[in-house]
Design goal:
The chain is an alpha/beta fold. The chain contains four helices and five strands; from the N terminus they run E-H-E-H-E-H-E-H-E. It has a five-stranded parallel beta sheet, with helices on both faces. It is globular, with a radius of gyration of 15 Å. It binds adenosine-5'-diphosphate and magnesium ion.
């Protein structure tokens, strides 16, 4: 049922908690995982030359972090792929999930900003609004060592 899972990550603690649940889902048939980071195009709004080089830097950094995550998952008996997109995260994540025909999106309730007073972050809220694919939202309160 959950063969192909998409984990959108901003590399935050909450996102890492969500990733742990993907490992637990192997028992439910998960055998393929895509790790996706979206470089937020809105974080770059300077003059073109500076903006472009900043964008390239963000892309390279994200690529390195995704690759290091992928390596950590090497012994997990999962087919793992990494992907970087540039755009608005809450738009790109559901679009990509549909294009790839994933069976489930596993993400954190919060991310880097981590405002605990808010029920969930704007990326998770807007992905939930847009997605036609089921989503597992892992909160920052979730106990660890679940897998
Ligand atoms: N740029 C991004 N690329 C991919 N996934 C993201 C990105 N930003 C957030 N996410 C996903 O959305 C979850 C919630 O993050 P977000 O809504 O941004 O919360 P916050 O407002 O606390 O930063 C994260 O745990 C992660 O799974
Ligand atoms: Mg965020």
């Amino acid at each position: 049922m959950f063969e192909k899972v998409l984990h959108p990550t901003d590399f935050s603690d909450c996102s890492m908690r969500a990733l742990k649940y993907v490992l637990g889902l192997k028992k439910a048939g998960t055998n393929e995982l895509i790790l996706l980071h979206v470089v937020d195009q809105r974080s770059v709004r300077y003059c073109e030359a500076v903006g472009l080089s900043l964008l390239r830097k963000l892309e390279t950094d994200a690529g390195n972090r995704l690759e290091s995550l992928r390596r950590k998952l090497e012994d997990e008996n999962l087919k793992v792929r990494t992907e970087i997109l540039i755009g608005i995260p809450s738009v790109e994540i559901p679009k990509f999930a549909e294009k790839e025909r994933v069976s489930l999106i596993v993400m954190g309730s919060h991310g880097k900003t981590m405002t605990q007073e808010i029920l969930m972050g704007s990326v998770s809220e807007n992905v939930i609004r847009r997605s036609r694919i089921p989503i597992l939202v892992v909160t920052y309160k979730t106990a660890q060592n679940v897998v």
